[in-house]
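Methods: holo model generation. Sequences were used as deposited, without trimming of termini or removal of tags, and paired with ligand SMILES retrieved from the corresponding compound records. Each pair was processed once, and we did not select among multiple samples. The sequence and zinc ion SMILES for this entry were:
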Amino acid sequence: MDTLLSKGLTKVLDAKRWLRYKDLDPLFEFINTHDVFRSEEFGKSEEGRPLRAIYWGSGPKRLIIWTQMHGNEPTATHALDLLIQSLVHDIKVKALENKISLALVPMLNPDGAERFQRRNALGIDLNRDAVAQCSSEIQAFYNLLDQFKPNWAFNMHDQRNLFSIGAQNKSATLSFLAPSPNENRHISLERKASMQMIGALGLHLEQHLKGHFGRYTDEFYPKAIGDNLMKAGIPNILFEAGYYPNDHLREKSCFLIHQALLKSLELIVDEQWQYTDTESYFKIPENKKQLRDMIFRGLNYRGCTMDLALMRVEMPMRRSGQLEILHEIVDIGDLSAFQGIEEHEGGSLQSERDLGINQIADFTWTGARNYTFKNGKLLQ
Ligand SMILES: [Zn+2]
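and the model returned the structure below.
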């Protein structure tokens, strides 16, 4: 794996998946001690946590990037940390200071982050609140958009491990989408620009991505932020950080997003994205949901031969402040259409209770080696 250290950058945030509001303190201390940045509170979350934006640069091109509008999707917040280090330490990037203006919002949903959940404290999915704007987070966010007036917007997310590149067994380590402005999936000028930008980023990242690169379905989501920004004439891109083999901390996708962000600054400043055609976007394989974390194939259970699939679930443990990894049964039967990130053949399964889907794994599998799951936890 490419190491982040090889780029000579040191992150200030702790490398962890459960990234909460207070975990951002070192980042804001860094911002406050470097006068190329300015930070500002632009509103409060439902539970009163300040929503903060970081500004850099004074140029006419204006890019806004926000992360963790889904509280349990921290990878891009780590990538913003790296971007912020580049804005201070990388001479090539520093040279763009009077050509582009950035507004960076690390953690738009701090209440959700506190609970390690997708939605905000009221249970609202902020990425479906673009029209009604019920949540204080989205109200504040729209005020920020009105003030900042971006001409580019990047909407940063994490995607689940089940996303594959097409029907292959390759995980989608990074996926992009140029959202649709309407049900007809119209390619407006803004959407075309977003597609061209994604195409250019894909070409740039291919050396690192090695085919782990996907395109999200462009179905129109009438309440989603990206679709509505597109409708309002702001070119925007959905980034989805995903799994790379043996990288549950998602450092690979963090590295790739950092690389994509650096490249996009250049592309925006020089308007080089215009020289990539939309074909490069459509050539990117569409994501499918073909992967499961673990598949036991052809196991024997009560005299029947069948397959069983598990997914990892990251459960926040309030007392310890740590995520615990539990395993959930997500499918049973003939799973030949799916691929396991980890696969085991044959063997037999013993369970004290009936198996069922959406059930926490509680069984022993005996095969080439033994696996015992107790209350979802894999006993080592
Ligand atoms: Zn998300």
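Residues 70, 73, 157 surround zinc ion (CB under 6 Å).
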